[in-house]
Amino acid sequence: MIGVLRSEWIKLRSVRSTYIVLALVPAIFGLVALLTMTAANFWDATPSRRDSIILSPFTGFTSWIAGVGLAILGVLTMTSEHSTGLIRTTYTVVPLRTRVIAGKAIVLTVVAFVSGQFVEFGSFFLSRAMMGNRTIVGHTSSLVEEAPAMLASGTVVAVYAILGLGLGALLRSAAGAITALVAYWYITPLIAQKLPGEWASWATSLMLTHLPVQLTGAESFGMSPPLKLSQPAAAVVMLLYMAVALGVASLFVRRRDA
After folding, report:
1. Looking at residue 137, what DSSP letter applies?
2. What pLDDT digit, counting tens, does each position of 208-252 carry?
3. What is the rounded CA–CA span in Å between residue 126 and residue 30?
4. Which residue windows are transmembrane per the record (predicted)?
5. Nearest 5 degrees, angle CA 73-CA 181-CA 213?
6. 116 neighbors 66 (Cβ within 8 angstroms)
């Protein structure tokens, strides 16, 4: 298994798409800096309205953007080998295909988890450094208070990546898998929120975007319907996302030709 992990790590860091996706990290920091600077400048220029200035926490927002990028990397981890034909060589060297999927999943999870935590904690320190002593609503809590939410939001980035890997194995097409991901992110939440009564709350609660806040037991900050999951239930749902994605990937790579 060590050899599989080493080969998957070499493949991941030797393709250009990995660095293009990871370039999202400085881009996210740039966006956080821009939003923070805008709020700080407004706070400085309007002393009489400081109590009404609200800047939403960055945790969900930054993990969502990072999750999109790492999910695409998960798709490319699988589809790029099919498009180049390298997957046949991989399966010749490692005939047990589920071991290949396991190796890809482990390497991808580590990269996505580290990237997610780096984005979350980096955004926190960047925004706090730029705000200084300003007390803007949504950004007054300490590192200790914010750490659980940042850890949960950074962790869900790894779940996004595995979801992308599963779709890549299922569809074998980067365009098809990325289209499915975009549909999940943009269309499914709209449909969920339009469902009647309690169905809207339950469907929204199961979305990856809303799992971190339920995992920490914090209050939702936004316009979404009331969330339903307890902390243990949110953790179970997060694990189910990964289990289903990897289960589907393993099933299809074993049953189809390379």
Report:
1. B
2. 888 888 888 776 656 666 777 888 999 999 999 999 988 988 888
3. 10
4. 20-43, 55-78, 105-127, 147-167, 174-192, 233-253
5. 90
6. yes
